[in-house]
Every structure is written in C-alpha cells, then in structure tokens.
Automatic annotation (TrEMBL):
Keyword annotations of the record: Membrane, Transmembrane, Transmembrane helix
TM ranges: 49-69, 81-104, 166-183, 225-247, 268-293, 305-327
Protein name according to UniProt: G-protein coupled receptors family 1 profile domain-containing protein
Source organism of the structure: Adineta steineri
Protein localization: Membrane
Amino acid sequence: MNSHDVNNRLSQIPLINKSILHSLNTTLHPREQISHVQSLLIIFETVRISSAICSVLGVLANLALIYVIANTSFRHVSYGLLIATIAFFDSIRLLSSIFYYLIFANVIPRNFITKIIYVVIDRYPIFVVNWCKVLMSIERLLTVRYWEHHTHLDWRSKHKRKQHRQFTYAIIFILISGFISQHPNFFSQRYEFIDINYQRLMFVIKQNPNFKYGYYKFNNTLFTIISYLILDTTMPVFSVLFVNILLLKEIRRLPLSLQVKVKESIGILFFLTGLSIAILPRAFIALYGHYVLDDDYTLLKKLSISFYICLGFEYFNHAITGYTCFLQSALLRSELKNMIWTRYIVHHLHE
C-alpha cells in the first residue's frame, strides 16, 4: 500500500483529529494506522455519544429529584438532604463530561485556564458524592438499628430535627474537606502543561517538578496518591461497602415484617453503592494514563479503551441517581406525579 492509498483510506474515517493522524503517521506502520485509529475512535465516539445522552437525561432526572425534595417534607429529613446533595453534585459531574468533550472538539478554546477548570470541576464532585454516600450509609444504618424506636417520629420531633442538623454539619464538613484536599489543583504553577494526548485520546498532565508549596518542594506523586486514589475513591468506596455489610447484619436481626418495610428504604443505597465500585478501576487507569509516559502503542490502545469503558460506567453511575430514587421510592414517585398534575397539567387546563 503506497502513501497515497493510506491517505485516501484515512480521509474516509469521520471525525478524526489531524493531530491524531500526525502523531500516528510518525510512529506506526501504514496498515497499523488504520486499525489503531479506528478502534480508538469507535470506543471514544461511542462513549462520547453515550455520555452526552446520559448527561442530559441524568441532569434532568437529578434536577427533578432535587425539586421534589426541596418542595416536600423530604427536605426536613436527613435522608432527603443527603440524596439532594448527591443529585446536585452528580449533575455537576455530568456537566463536566460535556465540558470535557467540548474541549476535545475545540468548541471550547483549549487553553490553560479551561483545562484547569476541567481538572477542578471533574475531581471535586467525585469527592463530595462518594463521601455523601458514606454518610447516607451511616444514616440508613442508624435508621435500621433504631427502627422500632424512631420510625414513628415525625420530622418535627426533637430527635429528627437534631439528626437533620447533625448531618447538615457533616455535609458542610465534607464540602470544606473537599476544597482543602484538592486546593493544590487551583495552583497553575503546579503544571508545566495540561494537554490532550491524541495517541491515547486522554488528558495528560505534566507536573512542575520545581513547584514549591510554601517553603517546601511539593511532592506531586504523594499528593496524587493521597488525594486522587485514597481520599477521592478508595477510602469512601470501601467505607460504604463496610457500612453496608453492617447494615445487612442489622436488617437480619429485624422481624420479617419489618424487613419488608426496610427494603424500600435501603434499596436506593445498595444500588448506588454497587455502581460506585466502577470508579475504582477508572481511577487507577487514569493515574497511569496521566502520569506514565509509554511508547507501547498496543498498551496505549488497551489503556484508552479500558479508560473510556470505565468512564462510561462512571457517568452512568452519576446519571442514574434520580431514576433510581424515583423507581425505588413510591413516595417520591407519588410526590412527582402530584407536582406535575397540580402545577402544570391542571394549571394549563384552567387557562
């Protein structure tokens, strides 16, 4: 195959960025260029389209969930407050995915500021959502353990109001802790460059080895491991799993009649916990992809494919929150139907 035939075949592949072709043309055999670019772009475009759909539908469902909670008695209970917080930051994470692909498509200018914005809005919601799920697990554990004593209490009771206040403080603590743990991401001096590697179709971050935090040299590797892997993902995911194991033990101690009543209450938590596990492999793949430079293109291909498959599951995790809550909770569904009927349908019928 001569170079003219190669260029003709490459030109027939839609949506190929010329930067990808340039990087591959200098390193791969002509026959390998086609298969390598095609396989990466198939995965990339599939996840991009799926993420766009998930983001739009997910944001709508999450906003509907927040609206229902904010306009009903759910806002007065700690469980409703936690779900609303998770739904809000899930929406921010989904919007960051749109921002991510718009940068790739050059719709948003690809400059240093926009890339730093992406790094910040991409990481912070993950921290908040994961740790709020830990709080929700603890709240459900306390609810099940003291089910017979407190289930009959109204949200106006002293105990319920005190619990609501305590979990509000806990959420504020998580929000502040997230900024503290990730505030070095705001320092532009930390990075030599943040750019798109078109061989991997991933953002690659080159750290500044001479950056100083105060009077001390900043350890980028240690910060990445502690913040990115441990605090953001590994610790909260394993904490949720541990609390859920305790929760299952508490449920088994209840009489069968009460276990049926508790089932709806914990169904949302168990479903969201299962999806959260998908975050772990993506975090390790992203760490390797961002900070390890490797010229093995077979490995890069597998790395990119694995990264975007895990990323797709992660976006699905954020998008499904609102739908899971409405499907699992008959009360939330009822409140949503009443709001749609009384505030929209009836209003238009009277006009």
